[in-house]
Amino acid sequence: MLICPTKAGLREAVAAWRREEQVIALVPTMGFLHDGHLALVRAAAARGDKVVVSIFVNPTQFGANEDLEAYPRALERDCDLLHQQGVAAVFTPSVDEMYGTSGKTFVEVPELGGILQGALRPGHFRGVSTVVTKLFNIVQPDVAVFGEKDFQQLALIRQMVRDLDFPIEIIGYPTIRETDGLAMSSRNVRLTSEDRTAAPVLHAALVAAEQEAARGADAEHIGTIIRAMLAKVPRAKVESVDILDAATLQAVSGSLTTPVAILLAVRFGEVLLIDQKVVQPG
């Protein structure tokens, strides 16, 4: 497995694989890998001959009061895990390598990047779309795999790929969960024991919402059910509960007629957790 801290080194490796007509699959990550990431890697390996995983904690998607410095890092451990998965190359750039000394050009998807989590975290999705564009230009993959847990991010990346004509197939992979239902996340390690015990309420609320939708409940009733369940857990501080058309991410009201995406953003102590579920109307 190659470990490539520079763009030039990675491009050289990818060019050699291209000459061999190998299909390149990319999995972008910020590291501190867990089984959810490894599931993405396996999905990439099923679609490509060579899998490239990037590990880069991207500063441009963190706000001034967010947890950039606290974000967990374990590069050596991550590389060991990726080696066991048969990954061809790991891209491990520094901030200077990724952005240089200028960093004056940004990519934005305003319609999707300014709503929901984008409204709560101004500039976050500009940072995401910019770094993903750079990764796509550096690696030039045929396929890229992203987790569905970050549902808004996945929708934004798909829109960006369509609009900018990237010849890349974007694959969304279902959320991987712990045995108690909590969505796997690198941030989970920062939860206190009390918050870790409380956090599975996110999945429980989503399951309840799915059951209500199957019974024919409207969007307002489903939102009420979710908020009532979260309110019973004092450690859960709700930032947003959004019920959206799964295809357009437009807000839904009244009776459900198409699949809807329910997106949750809830803070436990200093840790913001997100979760999602696409549910069908009854």
UniProtKB/TrEMBL annotation:
Function comment: Catalyzes the condensation of pantoate with beta-alanine in an ATP-dependent reaction via a pantoyl-adenylate intermediate.
Enzymatic reactions: (R)-pantoate + beta-alanine + ATP = (R)-pantothenate + AMP + diphosphate + H(+)
Record's protein name: Pantothenate synthetase
Catalytic residue positions: 37 (proton donor)
Subcellular location: Cytoplasm
Pathway assignment: Cofactor biosynthesis; (R)-pantothenate biosynthesis; (R)-pantothenate from (R)-pantoate and beta-alanine: step 1/1
Binding site for beta-alanine: 61
CC terms in the record's Gene Ontology section: cytosol
EC number assigned by the record: 6.3.2.1
PANTHER family registered for this protein in UniProt: CYTIDYLATE KINASE/PANTOATE-BETA-ALANINE LIGASE, PANTOATE--BETA-ALANINE LIGASE
Organism for this UniProt entry: Roseibium limicola
Binding-site list for (R)-pantoate: 61, 153
InterPro entries the UniProt entry points to: Cyt_trans-like, Pantoate_ligase, Pantoate_ligase_C, Rossmann-like_a/b/a_fold
UniProt subunit comment: Homodimer.
